Amino acid sequence: MNCRLCGSNKMKPVVNLGDQPLANQLLNDRTWNEPRYRLALVYCQRCTFMQLTHLVPPAEMFSDYPYMTGTSSSTVEHFNGMARHVVRLLELPKQSRTVDIGS
């Protein structure tokens, strides 16, 4: 495989967890035969980018995605605290906004 960032073919395996079901799928006894996807991480020796060897199509990964950050009170509390910390740390004025962009 070639690096998705720089195109190099100097990829070094880091970890291979084999074929795995998608995360956040709520399984029951009728769904044990769900699709599995290769979960392996490689390191580009040229540009140091780390990447998965296989990408699951977003439509498959997120078509029935039950996790939403805002539904967990502990997660909301954590990010509110983090925002307050950043405001204090950077000495931002009260009208400032902090935004967390995740992926």
Query: What string gives the helices and strands in order?
Result: EEEHH
User: Strands across the major sheet, in which order?
Assistant: 1-2-3
Tally of DSSP helical segments: 2
Task: Provide the structure class.
Answer: alpha+beta
C-alpha Rg (nearest Å):
19 Å
**Measured distance between first and last alpha carbons:** 23 Å
Unreliable residue runs: none
The beta-strand count equals 3
The major beta sheet can be summarized as: 3 strands, antiparallel
Shape: flat
- Fraction in beta strands: 15-25%
Roughly how much helix do the residues carry, as a percent range?
10-25%
| Overall pLDDT score | 85
Commentary on this structure:
- There is one protein chain.
- This protein has a three-stranded antiparallel β-sheet with strand order 1-2-3, with no helix packed on it.
- Helix content is 21%, strand content 22%.
- The two termini are 23 Å apart.
- It has 103 residues and is α+β, with helices and mostly antiparallel strands.
- The model has no long low-confidence stretch (mean pLDDT 85).
- The protein has helices at 58-62, 73-89; strands at residues 11-21, 36-44, 50-52.
- A hairpin with a 5-residue loop joins strand 2 and strand 3 (50-52).
- It contains two helices and three strands; from the N terminus they run E-E-E-H-H.
